[in-house]
Design goal:
Layout (H helix, E strand, L loop, with lengths): L1 E8 L8 H8 L3 E5 L9 H8 L4 E2 L2 H5 L3 H6 L5 E6 L6 H12 L3 E5 L4 H4 L14 E3 L8 H12 L4 E5 L1 E2 L4 E2 L2 H10 L11 E6 L7 E6 H4 L9 E5 L5 H10 L4 H5 L6 H18 L2 E2 L8 H23 L4 H18 L3 E2 L3
């Protein structure tokens, strides 16, 4: 006997693969978990598509009361229909783990997921960093989202922001409200009105919408009913820039102003510029007999080399870039502390 997680897909029962339908029809009992995402279907429609009765699972049945479900799968083939891909939500992997620990055989039928479908925006799926969820108001502040935006920007990566929902109480974030929450957090170094943002509504549905603009402008754009997600792009390849312009209607001014710079890049550029300014205006003092002007010039030559190394490693996205610039600063500071040169940072 087997416990099978069966992916429905992004939209409705029509997204189910032939393998998913075959697996569902081979089950003795079918349940549907419909609270982790908004779908354009219901147990009745699923039942009609599959040809078998489908019972809707309440949230607690999977999260707090899964043992009876697992025990049921010990004696019969049990299928659980899940929106999107069955393993996108952590609840479902936890169910597999519990079943495996109790010796119950499991199977997963995969399906379409928002994690890959967002490639329709034109942004490369290989360039997404950590995905994060923006909680509904009252659940938690947006601190984790803002920290993730900073972290992904540091590496030039895109950020997919999933928007929380409460199916039972019929509440779901919209793109407009999500942007306002992030802006109201008043952390402009993480997210501000000029931040390039992509709004994605009902991806995979007949009336899907994709729109890119600055955060402030996008907040005033009505993308219709949920489900919605946000994407905050990192560094863009020219193909991605063209895709946002063509596929997401992004205005040129929003793209031209998009220059995501992480904290590491900011520090490297700041300290490197300071070192080069010092070299250009370096005032060599009266030198002791043991030190020649050529010796000082040789050391400042090393400083220039370290700065060049820093720029190279920065382009290669290596943390050694900051170390190289630090070496350059160290040599200049040593020259000053020894009384050989004079300058101000």
């Amino acid at each position: 006997m087997t416990l099978t997680l069966i992916s429905i897909g992004l939209t409705d029962h029509n997204d189910m693969s032939r393998r998913a339908l075959q697996a569902a029809r081979g089950c003795d009992t079918l349940y549907a978990e419909l609270y982790t995402m908004i779908l354009d279907t219901d147990p009745r429609s699923l039942s009609e598509a599959i040809g078998k009765p489908v019972q809707e699972l309440p949230r607690g049945r999977l999260e707090e009361d899964s043992p009876p479900l697992i025990e049921e799968a010990r004696h019969a083939n049990i299928g659980i229909l899940v929106g999107g891909d069955a393993l996108t939500a952590t609840t479902h992997i936890s169910l597999l783990l519990e079943a495996a620990k109790k010796g119950v055989k499991t199977r997963v039928i995969h399906g379409s997921s928002i994690l890959t479908a967002v490639a329709e925006t034109g942004l490369s799926p290989y360039k997404f960093g950590r995905t994060v969820t923006l909680p509904l108001p009252g659940k938690a502040p947006p601190d984790t989202v803002l920290a993730t935006l900073r972290e992904n920007r540091e590496h030039g990566l895109h950020t997919l922001v999933l928007l929380d929902l409460d199916i039972v109480n019929r509440e779901a974030h919209t793109i407009n409200r999500a942007i306002r929450i992030l802006l109201d957090a008043d952390q402009p170094e993480s997210y501000n009105g000029d931040t390039l943002t992509v709004g994605v509504a009902r991806l995979g549905w007949e009336d899907q919408e994709i729109k890119a603009d600055s955060a402030e402008n996008l907040a005033g754009h009505d993308l219709g009913d949920p489900p919605h997600v946000l994407i905050v792009p990192g560094r863009l390849h020219f193909h991605e820039t063209e895709a946002l312009r063509t596929l997401a209607g992004c205005p040129d001014e929003a793209l031209e102003g998009h220059e995501p710079v992480g904290e590491l890049d900011t520090l490297i550029e700041k300290y490197s510029a300071g070192c080069r300014r010092v070299i250009e205006g370096l005032d060599v003092r009266d030198l002791p007999k043991s030190v020649t002007l050529e010796d000082v010039k040789a050391l400042t030559g090393h400083v220039a080399n370290y700065l060049d190394d820093g720029e190279y490693y920065q382009a290669e996205r290596k943390a050694t870039a900051l170390a190289s610039v630090s070496y350059a600063e160290g040599i200049l500071d040593a020259l000053r502390l020894l009384g050989l040169v004079e300058f101000e940072w």
